[in-house]
């Protein structure tokens, strides 16, 4: 029998822009995504899952189904419509109401301050490539700590710094849609880590109550042929882009020689440079032991083969399996013909990858303190038939990944909770609405919620703590 620890959090994750809708209601400022979706995609984030109005319904369902934690994010532009300056009282009030309701339902809120949604007024000035953004973020965070501090126990600065740099400046699937620009990728990673470090320092200096951490998306990278040194190097370089550079900043407070050698190699092949200042490194170093927890979002592993041709990335946004392409000059290419199942969006399902990543954090960054799996789940084209949703593949997915988490705990990794992405079906940034992840099915026309088979399974899991 596999049993998870007594105080384990069995959570559900959401994010403001993906759940709330009401993108222009009650004084909310625009975000870059509003314009980007209008210009490039066939859907919008309105009304998404209408969490803005229906949060009492979702939190009641959470309580009924044993979900004892919820990840929500605060939309920066609901609080400061322009990113700084004038405060929007209605936005402030909304999050008081959501947090109060969560506590009323016995669902612990884990609050993220930034989940991909920089206010447009700041985004158009360069987002985090513009160092002024760092200061505005810290001011916004300080406001939230003071406003909500007495009712929030868990704060997260950023959600997925890695995929932001990747989506905005490498794959070009996030606004401003720039491709293959490695200066911007690494500068965005670095500046956001700096904003994180400054915020954590402020949090601790001012003795705000509760805990603070950051959520990183850690995908595990393996060489296609582990006997081939060129493939081993490809996996390492891809790991540096997506994981290691950011983990070094978080827990070493500096970039290791090996990491920088990799970054410089990528710059030599693709062009690029970085602005790293002594004062930045001092701040990263001062914050490295102040993180109370690390949130890990994990969905996939990748197999990398050496590659020296021209860079080409194609993002499969439609769920047509086999349409993805990812190859970067002098780094490597993703290979899909390995004996591993994948989702319709070409995400390789490999629970061992989560185990390996957890062990890696423990071994390479022993000052990590504790971990929450802040996102994991299966993107699936769920169908509702006769009022029922049979999503057995999602149950199997979660069960297998939780088994890997259980094994990591046995092997000494301090994991304290798991949040399934997502609590209810939500809007998906670059996929729209046919990629569903929720425990609760959402009819996006009527906004009616229907618990899926996985919700009943999750309830049983949360009650017994046994993975079966
Ligand atoms: C990670 C992101 O945090 C979330 O916003 C996204 O929808 C999920 N991955 C699934 O792609």
Automatic annotation (TrEMBL):
Keywords: Glycosidase, Hydrolase. GO terms for molecular function: 6-phospho-beta-galactosidase activity; beta-glucosidase activity. SUPFAM superfamilies: (Trans)glycosidases (SSF51445). It comes from Alkalibacterium gilvum. It is an enzyme of class 3 (hydrolase). Belongs to the glycosyl hydrolase 1 family. This is 6-phospho-beta-galactosidase. The active site is at residue 375.
